[in-house]
Amino acid sequence: MVDEIRITESNCCSLEVHTRWARKRLNSTWGPEHRQRFEREIRAIQAMKHPNIICCEGQNLPGQERFYLMRLYPDTLRQRLARVGGWDWHVVAGFGALLADALDYAHDNGFIHRDLKPENILLTNDGTPVIADWGLGYFVHKHSVVLVQLTRGGMGTEYYCSLEQWGTGKCDRRGDIYSLGMLLAELVEGSQRAITVGMGLGNAPVARSGPGASDFNELLWAMTRPFPFQRPGSMAEVSRRLVKASSLSNHHSA
Question: How many angstroms separate the CA atoms of 99 and 238, rounded?
Fold first, then answer.
């Protein structure tokens, strides 16, 4: 794991004394690539203010052991998925719309995540998603040393990685769209598929038949197409289509 998470007691003058926070720390033995990643993450989360994006609540002064403080969340999406398995697709659509809105905000502010996966989605007590880990993206590709360190059995980061990022380490907002599509399909099905990295979901449907299900399936298929020009052009479009699919299902049930 690239970053170590530790619990600390807050004694920062800008935070309530004796409250509990998560401290994300840079290991002093790691090299310049990891430090660059860590500093990029701090800059990103300081610049963004969104309810579904992690917030930097404080940091130490540069030159010492590097860390920042963030709120302590009870769960990750990966942990929740392991406990409860797949979700109803219309619940996933609503959940995905929240993520898409947050990512659209990030993209409009010049930040591409490039490492969306269940491990990087934190959950509040009521299940609201919060996107974390904004520093890795520039270092994910098929020859990445960082990627090797992150993968622990099965498929890790690369499962969600777009073809263009896998080949070059670079992608625009459509790379995040690919990753979100892979993530949402996994939420519905409860597990990862057997895939070729970057080639998407194929033609098999994700949601069962019914009003809105075909719209949902079509969107996830489009989001995970191999080439960027084949995917939706923005997270705003993704969010609109997720909300539409979910509303069709709700209207039929009413």
Answer: 10
pLDDT average, residue stretch 199-215: 85
Active site residues: 115
Quote the pLDDT of residue 4: 46
Please report the pLDDT score of residue 38 as a whole number: 82
Q: What whole-number distance in Å separates Cα of residue 114 and Cα of residue 111?
A: 9
3-state secondary structure the chain: CCCEEEEEECCCCCCCCCCEEEEEECCCCCCHHHHHHHHHHHHHHHHCCCCCECCCCEECCECECCEEEECCCCEEHHHHHHHHCCCCHHHHHHHHHHHHHHHHHHHHCCCCCCCCCHHHEEECCCCCEEECCCCCHHHCCCCCHHHHHHCCCCCCHHHHCCHHHHHHCCCCHHHHHHHHHHHHHHHHHCCCCCCCCCCCCCCCCCCCCCCCHHHHHHHHHHHCCCCHHHCCCCHHHHHHHHHHHHHHHHHHHC
Tokens of 160: 């969600």
Measured from the Cβ of residue 64, the count of other Cβ atoms closer than 10 Å reads 8
End-to-end C-alpha distance for the chain, whole angstroms? 46
pTM, two decimal places: 0.85
**pLDDT surpassing 80 at residue 174:** yes
Would you state the structure tokens that stand for residue 133, as one six-digit string? 């880990």
